[in-house]
Amino acid sequence: MRIGMPARRHLSVRVIKRKSPTMGKELVTGNHAAGRTLAMAGEANRKARGCACGAYPITPQTEIIEYLRACELTKGRIVPVESEHSAMAVCMGASLAGARSFTASSSNGLSYMTENVFAAGYYRLPIVMIAVNRTLGPPWNIWVDQGDSLALRDAPWIQFYVESHQDLVDTILMAFRLAEDHRILLPTMVAMDGFVTSHTQMVVDLPDQEQVDRYLPNCDVPHRLRSDHPTTVGGLTWPSETERHRKDLQRAMERVPDVLDEAIDEFENVFDRKPHGILSAEHVEDADTIFVACNTMARTLRGVIKKRRESGERIGMIKAKMFRPFPRKAYRDLLSRAKKVGVLDRNHSPGSGGIFWQEIAASLQGHSGPLLQDYLVGLGGGDVTPEVIDEIIDDLAKRNQAGEPVWKEVAA
Question: What kind of architecture, by CATH, is found in domain 279-408?
């Protein structure tokens, strides 16, 4: 049994009806915000083929599943199962039946789900999954780093990394609209920091059901199974057919930025606020030095950079939000004028280094670019404080050439 999991193999099947939430700002945890948003997205498909969620708990994701199990949906089911592998299988079956489908997992649960994660992408099923980032084990560690979701970087899934509770809510809704768009039809993962986001509370502008209904069109899976048109799913193909299939996946990924821009514009029309897109550049116009970070580290970095700029330093930042598809051209354009770039990676690929650093380095290959230095920081949930960020900035300022990834140890 994995650490942090309840002794019982199934959640209670008792259903508690919740009143429909009203719009307004509320103080909620990240898990509460995620569960509530998933439930409203599912309810928004009640006039079509409903919704379904394959549900299995693992710390620090468990409260999302608990929230969903306590919701009574007009046309949908939250299905408790015996494993994460089965949770994704439920989502696949529901999506193949044409339902809006979603789930949540974390850490070794994501690893156990891997076979079906790949299958869901190759089947082009618009499933949305919340990944609550937690360190892979053993040794067992229930705190945050991104190795669990980034281990799935070669799966045909769109991946987002959010910095706050509000960013989480907004991105979940955009994920459904993006995944279900017929130009895309790819599953989408929304990742948040375990405990740092999942269990802390922030004031969040939560939508009401009427708004979500307006924003999310009815889910229409064009290749769903139909009784009047029997179809084989997952049959054997020849090499040439597999090659065409992979090219189709690539073309769908290449369409994501434009379709996401449309989803953001419509989000602003419905909710009267504009969420962040693939990445956010701040103070880069005059910056000699730029740092790249994602999730909650970006919030800490932003505060430090503000203070350093007040003292006259020409320093900027990029908040990385979309990891797949990786926006190579956007990074090239934004980093082209910088002299030095530091990448803060809360992840590690053994034998190589930080994963965001690798992707950025590949994006700059063949182009004249800045000194690019990787910093491995906060692995296993270490607290990335403003003091740690200051030390990293000072280290990069002294460098005349890039070196191997720097391990920046921080306090537990």
Answer: 3-Layer(aba) Sandwich (3.40)
Q: Are 354 and 293 in contact (CB under 8 A)?
A: no
Strands (E), 84-152: 100-105, 128-133
Confidence of residue 369 (pLDDT cuts 50, 70, 90): confident
38: amino acid identity, one letter? L
- Is-contact 82 10, C-beta < 8 A? yes
Nearest to 106, CA basis, from 389, 381, 393: 381
Q: Are 294 and 331 in contact (CB under 8 A)?
A: no
What are the pLDDT digits (tens) for 68-99? 999 999 999 999 999 999 999 999 999 999 99
CB-CB contact of 64 with 94 (8 Å): no
Matching fold, domains 24-271 and 279-408: yes
CB neighbour list of residue 154: distance below 8 Å, 6 or more residues apart: none
Token pair, residue 251, equals 């073309």
Radius of gyration for the alpha carbons in the chain, expressed in angstroms and rounded:
21
At residue 293, φ and ψ (nearest 5 deg) are -150, 165
Q: What is the pLDDT of residues 297-341, one digit of tens each?
A: 999 999 999 999 999 999 999 999 999 999 999 999 999 899 999
Residue 152: count of CB within 10 angstroms of its CB: 21
Longest CA–CA separation in the chain, Å: 70
Residue 344 in tokens: 């803060």
Q: Work out the end-to-end distance of the chain between its first and last CA atoms, rounded to an integer number of angstroms.
A: 25
Question: Are 57 and 84 contacting, i.e. CB atoms less than 8 angstroms apart?
Answer: no
Per-domain boundaries in the chain: 24-271, 279-408
Runs of H (alpha helix) within 182-338? 209-215, 239-271, 296-310, 328-335
Q: At what angle do helices 165-180 and 239-271 cross, to 10 degrees?
A: 130
| Angle ∠(136,331,364) on CA atoms, nearest 5 | 90
- DSSP states of 33-90 as a string? HHHHHHHHHHHTTTTTT-EEEEE---TTSHHHHHHHHT---TTEEEEE-SSHHHHHHH
CATH fold, domain 24-271, is Rossmann fold (3.40.50)
364-370: long-range contacts, CB 8 A cutoff, minimum separation 24: 364/331, 364/332, 364/335, 367/332, 367/336, 368/336, 369/332, 369/335, 369/336, 369/341, 370/290, 370/335, 370/338, 370/339, 370/340, 370/341
Whether 365 contacts 326, CB under 8 Å: no
What is the reported pLDDT for 12? 27
